[in-house]
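User: I'm curious whether this sequence folds into something compact or stays loose and floppy. Could you predict its structure so I can see for myself?
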Amino acid sequence: MSPSGPRPELPIGVFDSGVGGLTVLRALEAALPAESFVYLGDTARLPYGTKSAASVVRYASQCATALAARGVKALVIACNTAASAALGELAQRYAELPVVGVVEPGARAAVGASRSGRIAVIATEGTVRGGAYVAAITRLRPDATVRGIGGSVFVALAEEGWTEGPIVEAVAHRYLDGVFHGAGAPDALLLGCTHFPVLAGALRRAIPPTVALVDSAATTAQAVAALLAARGLARAPGTPPAPTRFLATDGAERFARVGSIFLGRPLAAADVELVDV
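Assistant: Here's the prediction. I'll summarize afterward.
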């Protein structure tokens, strides 16, 4: 981080437990085409969703420190589990930086998509256990009913690049069949893990067509854009950005192979720098 504080020309730091946060990076790049980014995937320690809250806070703090040391003007916690556990601590530690998690923007998107206030959130065990989405949604809509669904198997499938096929379809039905049928069923399903958008096709087919499927990536990008503008940190429109830098704590080849699916464009192992956080 610059001793004089964040400056508009600095990149935005984004981190996740693995490649799932690349769905958020993709939305950020689309919404903020003049900005530069540094992305860190903590692939050596994924998944975060099965770890204790104390471990997740420690890992998230180490990732944030590594990005801040490279000089960033904002931090985006592109991991629902990390945002649930560590957003408050990181926002306090890096008070001079905009720090954005995916939970609050996701909650806003879900509330906006639901007519009845009955919302289901499919996420990792850690995110569901922490209750961050229940708290965020009910702050926005006190009469909302929120049902958390632990879907950690989806993280493993996504990290393997298994986004379609009979196994993915079977897991989707296993998680969701008992939730969206009968009186009082939710009318919105929030993807509460950044790994899950690449599985949206299977999830969409497992729920009734009247149920809204909500991905928080675009809403998170809007929140980042608003904060940068409010703090005078946005780069001028039309400014050519530097190429996105990709960092990982393990497995550059795997990161590139699976990350290409999440990012929606080819990514080579040579583009990924291995780091120790």
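Summary: The chain has a mean pLDDT of 94. Residues 53-69 form the longest helix (17 residues).
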